[in-house]
Amino acid sequence: MGKKSKRNTPKPNSNRAEKLAERRAAQEQASTAVVRPFEGLAAECDLVAMREFVPTATAPLTLRDGNRLLNLATVLPGAVAALVRSEDDVPTGYIAVQVQAEPADPAVGFGFSAQWATTVEPGESLNSAPLDAVTPTFADIVDADAVLDITVHKDFNWWIPEGVAPDAEVAATVERANQAIMPSARLDGLNAAWWVDAGDKAHLRWVRPEGEDDLMLALARLHAAGKLNLGEGSRFAGSFRTHGLLVPVFDLDNERHASEWTPAATELGERLVEALAIDTPLTSEERRSRDGIRSRQVTLR
Prior knowledge:
Radius of gyration: 22 Å
Oligomer: single chain
Structural class: alpha+beta
Largest sheet: 6 strands, mixed
Strand content: 15-25%
């Protein structure tokens, strides 16, 4: 027998070997990633929204114990995991859901950040959350039954504490971040229904708490009946799945303000609830709708 060809074997320490090692590490992390990390939290859907597509927002967190003020934030300066600063001479912590170093289990990463932010002194920041076997989860630190009272900001000026004059570099960083913002709003009275103005059109991205299979059937029933929309000036654009949840997306007329879509979105939510209660098999037309929706579906995480 001839010798085995080494043509496709990368040389040690070569660029190709390094890229292959990075790819294997990414595949291993993906295989161990938790599918639905925030399951069981009342704020699950809004947590997913803030993590995936809300640009600039904050929300106070209700802790299981401890009296330090702690806030959730979409993103912090430098994409750090957490920081603590003094506000009115009170130590106030912030933990970010959009971070540069992504943990395999976000719930554990947030748990470490939250615990860290309740113990260090103002002026400290945490670049990433190192995880180990004893790292608490987010649900260990915060009240799992508490919903988020979210403040959606128009810009990132809240990065600069009130009364503090930023230096030129910090001001430039905030200005660059502000220029990248797409206006967003959370529709009143609806769980995790988010409007965003993307420029040429607006979108509704609605993070739903139902199981993916059940929600897919409900979407198919409404689509087949011509009821999967928010009325004139809207159309169902597709859906994506992230963190174990399904997110239907609708294109909207951007000439209308976010609040103008609330009544139609409320009605759509009621139609979805009714469709979710139906347990009969799909009709042939509903199956075609389901297959069409699935063909346009993408997975983010």
